[in-house]
Design goal:
By secondary structure, the chain is α+β, with helices and mostly antiparallel strands. α1 crosses α4 and α4 packs across α6. The longest helix is centred in the middle third of the chain and has 42 residues. Among the domains are: 142 residues, no CATH class; 187 residues, Nucleotidyltransferase, domain 5 (2-Layer Sandwich), CATH 3.30.420.10. It has 13 helices and 21 strands. An eight-stranded mixed β-sheet has the order 19-20-15-14-11-12-13-21, sandwiched between helices.
């Protein structure tokens, strides 16, 4: 089978990944059914064998010389190293054997070498970053001067485009090593310990002698994975390895004509998860030549604000509609409650750790410390799942907005260099823990399916200047919420313009206009394929203005041309004028007037009572984000802009007579 799908004109091959669950299998030799629990146990045994070999290989070659040699891409004879990590390690002569008394085939060793090679290759970038920071160590690590920032960016590979937060994090790590050792680290291998090997099986490094994956011809949504698994934790001979056939139900996101590759198996929560890689043809995204763009602006409670802008043939830019917003105040409130609980548990864990280190540990103290450590891991998993769900929902919404507007490009505000400081402890923490990076990755992933380009745009002055005349705006309280403090509303002081509106709506207009006028300066990263506009040109920025819509006044003749139509003294209304009937006790009954739902009679209890830090809805005291009172659950806390029919206008013809 070919590993690449056939490509038509204007299309390119794209590799993606889909998650599936292995619910069991069948032993091919005996025909015995293998349950999900037994399958997870056998995969765990195989993962332990691979992890042990990987750990030994990493401990042997965790040195700066070996990391540099592997990253150089050539061997001692000057020949180019293969792209596969396990082949590159074998070319360099970095061999490894299984533990004594354990029998494994060569493919198990391949998986260990592949994982170790990937970890060693990823350490090369951290080595360059560490060397650059150490070579330009500042006088005050907590605060660099402008000259010191220029020096460290020049010393770090790719430092000109590197966010300042990454350099600061590495500086804090080196400063901690300096306080404990009294000197600066020599390299990254001294600063960090050898990487730990994850419990997973990289079947991509194997061939048909270890694993195969075939798609069903009758049902494209199903596939069959065959692999060799041990029947005991320490297989003594090849007889202790059996072929197991595991059916896989593919998600609907995998196209029927996609080419499947061998998956990666992971043990998560006692179950075997398969990450199935596949290659399929997608429309190729264009770098330039866009006439319809979607501008996306980041917010705090209003997570995303987006709208479409059209570029006409004469160069004019016009906005299509008033834009839309993705509000996630309820989800973010839950996220911050979990963060506060995590900080509280970490403080208690540190206190118990000091008690354990200070004297002979009491059994009760050690037990409480272990219990809190397990609770912290559980809480971290909850926070990760919540962030991932929020990122996927926000990205899906943004891409759907672009598809509905028929936009060929999405311009995102580039906030990689955002540093949250000077705005208070609470606000700084909220800004620092946004999921912007995950949302950007998901937007790129979903937009590539339809051939929509995703380009990051410099964020400087996007919320400061008017989108129609580039005049600096005045910010203040929103007119519909005069009692809420803030700077949500923007007003243009230019009398000739007079634009006013939500500052986020003005920002997405500026982002889309800046992207359309600077699209010729879009650069593509060769390593990742990400598109970005690096800098802003004043000459092009002067043309990045939105042309305001011209108001048209109808001046038709309304003079009387005939007799007035007679009105009945008892008109029959077109809509019900009587009060709506009372709500029924159950879901059945007469539907009330308007768009009121009939399935839910009242809000759930979770929206009424004061909640703790581990529940969904928000407390009724102090800060109550909009949307959190709708009830429990993720989707009732993430809201997009309501459609125009959500609040129907009053019917002006309700008092007219019957037209029949």
């Amino acid at each position: 089978m070919s590993r690449r799908p056939p490509l038509a004109a204007g299309h390119s091959a794209r590799m993606a990944c889909a998650r599936a669950l292995l619910r069991g299998g069948v032993e091919e030799t005996t025909g015995e059914v293998v349950s999900a629990t037994v399958l997870a146990e056998r995969v765990g045994w195989c993962a332990e064998l691979v992890g042990g070999i990987t750990a030994g290989l990493l401990a042997e070659h965790w040195s700066m010389a070996d990391v540099a040699l592997l990253a150089s891409g050539v061997d001692a004879g000057g020949r180019r190293l293969p792209s596969n990590a396990w082949m590159a390690l074998r070319r360099l002569g970095w061999t490894v054997t299984a533990p004594e008394g354990v029998t494994v085939n060569d493919r198990i060793v391949r998986m260990a070498q592949e994982q170790a090679g990937r970890l060693l290759r990823s350490a090369h970038w951290r080595a360059g970053l560490t060397a650059g920071v150490v070579a330009t160590w500042p006088a005050d690590p907590c605060k660099r001067t402008a000259q010191e920032w220029d020096a460290v960016r020049a010393a770090v590979p790719g430092g000109a485009d590197l966010p300042a937060g990454i350099i600061k994090a590495r500086t804090r790590q080196i400063a901690a090593f300096l306080r404990s050792s009294g000197r600066l680290p020599a390299d990254v291998c001294e600063l960090e310990g050898a990487p730990r090997a994850a419990r997973m099986l990289l079947l991509a490094a194997c061939d048909r002698q270890q694993a195969t994956l075939e798609r069903s011809e009758s049902d494209p949504g199903r596939a069959l994975l065959r692999l060799q698994l041990p029947t005991r934790p320490d297989p003594r001979s090849y007889a202790d390895w059996e072929w197991v056939a595991c059916p896989i139900t593919l998600p609907s996101t995998v196209p029927a004509d996609a080419v499947l590759h061998l998956p990666t198996l992971r043990l998560i929560g006692g179950a075997v998860r398969a990450e199935v890689a596949f290659t399929h043809a997608v429309p190729q995204a264009r770098r330039t030549g866009h006439t319809m763009a979607l501008g996306v602006d980041w917010g705090l409670n209003t997570l995303l604000s987006a709208g479409a802008v059209r570029r006409h043939a004469d160069g004019r830019l016009t906005a299509l509609g008033a834009g839309a917003q993705f509000r996630a105040a309820g989800v973010l409130a839950k996220q911050h409650r979990l963060r506060r609980l995590s900080e509280h548990l970490h403080a208690k864990t540190d206190c118990y750790q000091r008690l354990i280190n200070g004297r002979a540990p009491h059994p009760a103290v050690a037990g409480r410390h272990a219990l809190l450590a397990e609770e912290i891991r559980h809480l971290s998993a909850r926070r990760s799942n919540l962030n991932d769900a929020l990122a996927r929902a926000a990205a899906r919404w943004a891409v759907d907005q672009a598809i509905a507007a028929r936009a060929t490009v999405i311009y995102l505000e580039d906030l990689r260099s955002l540093e949250a400081r000077g705005m208070g402890r609470t606000l700084n923490t909220r800004l620092s823990q946004q999921v912007r990076g995950q949302i950007t990755d998901h937007i790129r992933h979903l937009a590539a399916e339809t051939g929509i380009a995703v380009v990051t745009v410099p964020a400087r002055n996007t919320s400061k200047h008017c989108p129609h005349c580039l005049t600096p705006l005045r910010h203040g309280k929103a007119p519909d919420k005069p009692a809420i403090a803030g700077w949500k509303w923007a007003i243009c002081p230019n009398p000739a313009c007079g634009w006013q509106g939500d500052r986020d709506h003005g920002a997405w207009r500026r982002i889309a206009a800046r992207g359309l006028t600077h699209q010729a300066r879009t650069a593509v990263d060769r390593a990742t394929g990400a598109m970005a506009i690096g800098s802003v040109v004043d000459k092009l920025e002067a043309r990045a203005v939105i042309t305001p819509p011209t108001s048209r006044t109808r001046r038709t003749d309304r003079s009387k041309t005939g007799p007035t139509r007679r009105r009945s003294p008892r008109p029959a209304p077109r809509r019900r004028r009587a009060p709506s009937p009372t709500g029924p006790s159950g879901p059945a009954g007469q539907r009330p007037e308007g768009h009121a739902p009939t399935d839910r009679r009242r809000l759930p209890r979770a929206a009424h009572r004061h909640q703790g830090v581990t529940t969904i809805s928000t407390p009724t005291t102090r800060h109550r984000p909009r949307g959190a009172a709708l009830g429990a659950g993720f989707h009732l806390h993430a809201h997009a802009t309501p459609p125009r029919w959500a609040q129907p206008p009053p019917d002006a013809t309700s008092d007219m007579g019957s037209l029949s």
